Amino acid sequence: MVGRGGEIGRGARSREGWYQVSEWVESDEGRLIVRVLVRGLVQVARGEITDAESSVRRARLEGDPEDPGSIRRLRIAIRRVEYQLATMRELDSTLKVASLVDQLHEVGKPFGALRDAEILCARVAKALGERVTSPEGQRLIETISEERYLAQRDSDVSLDSQEFRDAIGALNEFRTSLPADALTAAMARPVAQLAIRLTWRALKDAAKAAKDDESDESLHALRRSVKHANYMTRSLSYVLGPSSTEFAARLTTLQKLLGRQHDHVIVAGWLRDVGDDHASLEPLAHELSVDERRRADKDASEWRREWRSIRDLHPKTSVMTSYSFFD
Prior knowledge:
Elements: H1 2-11, H2 15-25, H3 28-61, H4 68-91, H5 98-128, H6 135-159, H7 162-176, H8 185-212, H9 216-235, H10 237-240, H11 244-277, H12 282-300, H13 303-311
Helix pairs in contact: 1-2, 1-8, 3-4, 3-7, 4-5, 4-8, 5-6, 5-7, 5-11, 8-9, 9-11, 11-12, 11-13
C-alpha cells in the first residue's frame, strides 16, 4: 500500500492524476485508508468533546456556570467533526454518516446561539462606550443580557439532554465500527490530498459567488467554506506536511475577517430590530446599528485581498499542484 500511495501522490501532479486518485479511493484499498483516516479524526473529536464537556461540568460545580472558553471548545469540536465527516463522505459514498452529521448539527445549535449572544453582549457594550451608564444604554444591556441568559439556559439544557448523549454515543459507535489499522503518512497522503482538493474546489466556488454578489449571505457562505477548508487542512496537516501550515494560516486570516464582518452584521440587525420594537431606544439603537453596518461594510471591502493571498499559493488553481503538500 505504501508504494501504491506514493505512485498516486506523484500522479496527482495532473488533472488525469486526480482522476486516478478518485478512482483508486473507490477501490477496496482506497476505502480502507479513508475509513482508517476517518476513525482517527473521530477519535480526536471524541477526546476534544469529552474534555470540553468535562471542563464545563467542572466549572458548574465550582460556581462558574458560563465558562465561555470550554463552551467554545465544545462548539468547535462538534462543528469540526461535522465538517470532516461530510467531506470524507464525498470521498467514500458508502460511509453511512448522514444521520450522524444531522445529529451533531442539531446538538451543536444551542452552543452556536450562545456564542452569538456573547458576541452581541460584548460588541454592544463596546459600541455604547461611556453611554453604557445612560438610561437607554442600561436598557439595551438589560435586553441583551436577558437574551444571553436564555441562550445559556438552552445550552445547559442541551448539554444535559438525551439528544446530546445520543449524538456522542452515536459518534463513538461509528468510530468503533471503523477499522483501526495503522497508516503511514505516505499511505494516507493521496486520500488527504483529495479531501483538501474537494474543500478547495468548494471554497473557490464560494469565492466566485461572493465576487458576483457581495451580499452578507454570500460572504457568510464563503466564511463557512473557509472554515470547512481550514478545519480539514489542520486536521490532516500531519499527513500533508509542514507546507499546509501556511495554507491554514492564510485561511485563518480570511476566516477571522469574515467572522468579524458577520458579527457586525448580526449586531447591526439586532440593534435595528430593538429600535423597531422600542420607540424610546430607537435613536440610540439606530445610531449604533449604522455604525455596525459601516464596520461590516469595511470588513467586506477587504476580503478579496485576503482571498488573493490564499489563491496565490496555488497559481494552477484548477488542480492545486503548485504547493508542496499536493506533491
